[in-house]
Specification:
Its main location: membrane. The protein has 8 helices and no strands. By secondary structure, it is an all-alpha fold. The longest helix is centred in the N-terminal third of the chain and has 37 residues.
């Protein structure tokens, strides 16, 4: 991979990270409710899922994964139901002290990582992205250990940079709304985003 290809790949991964979809909507909702720190574990989970698909594509297993329709269907439904649950929790909460259980202080980092992983892993767009995208930058048949390490590093940096940018914007919105009434409206807006993310996940074919 040439320096130009590496830079182009990094930019493409960054843009892919901030493209609206179930993961971005869930991240915005989390940032609006739990702040920037509450988003970090969610972003890590999403990034781990993408790295897994990158490795699958690299070792020629992505096509097999793409055809595990029933397995991904079950994961997608479970992920969507969980997002519906989080959306309902946000709708029924009224103050900023009642944070979302998945990625707030009460939910723990592991819950956030799991949620992010499920959202990204159940999105067929992620699989197809790496299947169609990687061969334009590297020859997968001649990919060595050093090049693979570079690809993984670029993917992690690009994704985390984009996702953290989204999270920071959502967290800034949260800080604006300080009164109980405004916080209640913010929670309901975040809950609607969570429910919308779940609906998008269900609608994915």
């Amino acid at each position: 991979m040439t320096p130009e290809s590496a830079a182009t790949y990094l930019l493409a991964i960054f843009l892919f990270a901030i493209t609206p979809g179930p993961g971005v909507f869930a991240l915005i909702a989390t940032g609006m409710n739990a702040g920037f720190r509450g988003c970090l574990s969610l972003a890590v989970g999403m990034t781990l899922s993408d790295v897994l698909y990158l490795l699958l594509a690299t070792f020629g297993l992505a096509t097999l994964a793409e055809h595990w329709g029933e397995v991904f269907g079950v994961i997608r439904v479970l992920g969507a139901l969980y997002l519906f649950y989080l959306g309902w929790k946000l709708w029924t909460s009224s103050t900023q002290d009642e944070e979302m259980p998945a990625t707030g202080a009460n939910g723990g980092a592991l819950a956030g990582v799991t949620q992010g992983f499920l959202i990204s892993a159940s999105n067929p767009k992620v699989i197809l992205f790496y299947i169609a995208f990687l061969p334009t930058f590297v020859d997968l048949d001649r990919l060595g250990g050093a090049s693979l390490t570079l690809l993984v590093a670029l993917t992690v940096v690009g994704l985390m940079s984009g996702l953290c940018l989204v999270a920071a914007g959502a967290a800034r919105t949260r800080r604006i709304f300080r009164s109980s009434r405004a916080q209640r409206r913010l929670n309901r807006g975040a809950g609607s985003l969570m429910i919308g993310a779940g609906a998008l996940l269900i609608a994915k074919s």
